[in-house]
Amino acid sequence: MPLLLAFTGCPGAPADLEAETAVTWSWADSLLRTLTLEEKVGQMLMIDLPVTGSIADEDVRAALRDRLSRTHAGGVVLFAADAVPTAQTVAWAQYASQVPLLVALDAEWGAGYRLEGLTRLPDAMAFSATGNPERARWAGQVTAREAASAGISVLFAPTVDVNTQPANPVIGTRSYADHPDSVARYASAFAAGVASVGLLPVLKHFPGHGATSRDSHVDLPIAESDDASFMNVHVAPFRSVLSRVEAGVMTAHVIPRGHAYADTVAATFSHRVVTELLRDSLAFKGLVFTDALNMAGAASAGTTAERAIRAIEAGADVLLMPPDEEGTWLAIIEAVRSGRLSAARIDSSAARILRTKEALRLHAASFPGVTQELFAAIERPDNRREARYVAREAVTVLKDDLPLPLAASGSILLVSVEHRAARRQP
After folding, report:
1. Which candidate in 217, 234, 253, 259 is catalytic?
2. Residues 6+ apart with CB under 8 A from 269
């Protein structure tokens, strides 16, 4: 609840106090005033939360409490596990944290991509192949409802990359299309579906990973575009979605070249891209998440601590999965004390993070753990049936020469692309 402080004029009171008769402090702003530098820096860390044992085990609980308290981590990201123990672990993590946590899930393919038992959806390109954006809106809503039932508040989805490079090894069918208008239409629908349930969608990977021929999980790609294609093809869908839906943005570990916002470092560490383009030109006021800082594409920025500091200098708010979280936390604190980073810079990110938590109503949530909603979502037949319908509608005839001229003993080879849920970066 907002705190209303009323000041009444009295003899000898300062003029400015008499002039300001009421000040309203939100939960976020009130809390920010009480946090130490160490706690504010901790709010910027989002660490991975493995579900490796029963939360009923005292040793598991103690280890989790210690890990969260060591850096005052402000958020966690989940990976492959069963939905029920995940929900139990998330509830305990919230209980053990002094400030409510942002809990994120990589959810491009539905909550079931990571959480066993929930609904697994087709790739993004399948939804645009149906020709019906309402299918994408349904996907966003279903993914968000199921994720919320497990205690999740942030979805790393949708992908807003325009896949203009046919040889792209990492985006491909994760993109809705190779045309910016189609990407904007379907990504907006998915993001709106997520937001309608009360979760935060996070658009990725700014300013576009679709023009690359390398995978930033294992390499440092280059995305080369001239001014027109960069702004009108790759940046345009981000601008379009952000004009319609409140969302976060995830940066790309991709070197931008050939245009006005080109740089010699990956976009995650580029002040030109994150601050001058996203913050200033696109007037983005929300949370900026880095892509995972343990990826090979981030390694070019230096040590694990240096990656985090350079991302903050570029304008990032949430540092996703720094490899050495405690060392990173200490290095950022030292960077403030030495004057490399200003206290105001940390305050601005901490304030955005806390205000996002307040907007998501985390400060008023009870975090019950396993709920009826979660059990209702597990193995839910109507959602799985609808996902199969989307897959069928997505089948596209590229050459109308049917039936295929097969001999009586002929065979058809069907090749399917499957993303492995065990991958530990978004």
Report:
1. 217
2. 301, 307, 310, 311, 313, 314
Closest CA to 124 of 79, 190, 170, 193: 190
Asked if 110 contacts 119 with a C-beta cutoff of 8 angstroms, the reply is yes
Q: Residue 348 CB: number of other CB atoms within 10 A?
A: 13
Q: What is the DSSP letter of 272?
A: I
Catalytic (active site) residue 179: no
298-345 residue pLDDT tens:
998 999 999 999 999 999 999 999 999 999 999 999 999 999 999 999
- Global confidence as pTM: 0.89
Q: Is residue 217 annotated as a catalytic residue, yes or no?
A: yes
Written as six digits, the tokens of 159 are 């992908």
Structure tokens at 183: 């990407």
| Measured CA distances, 247 to 76, 156, 194, 296 (Å) | 18, 10, 10, 26
CA dist., res. 91 & res. 15, Å (int) = 48
Token pair for 154: 């942030």
Question: Hunting for tokens 């002094």 — which residue is that?
Answer: 98
SS3 content of the chain, % helix, strand, coil (to 5): 45, 10, 40
How far is residue 206's CA from residue 332's CA, in Å, rounded to a whole number? 24
Q: Which of 113, 183, 185, 173 is nearest to 143 (CA)?
A: 113
Query: Could you give the CA distance from residue 231 to residue 225 in angstroms, rounded to a whole number?
Result: 9
For residue 71, give every residue at least 6 positions away whose Cβ sits within 8 Å of its Cβ, in sequence order, or none: 41, 42, 45, 47, 325, 326, 329
Q: Residue range 242-266: average pLDDT?
A: 97
DSSP lists the bridge partners of residue 45 as: 319
Residues 270 and 32: their CA atoms lie apart, in Å, by 27
The H helix count followed by the E strand count for the chain is: 16, 14
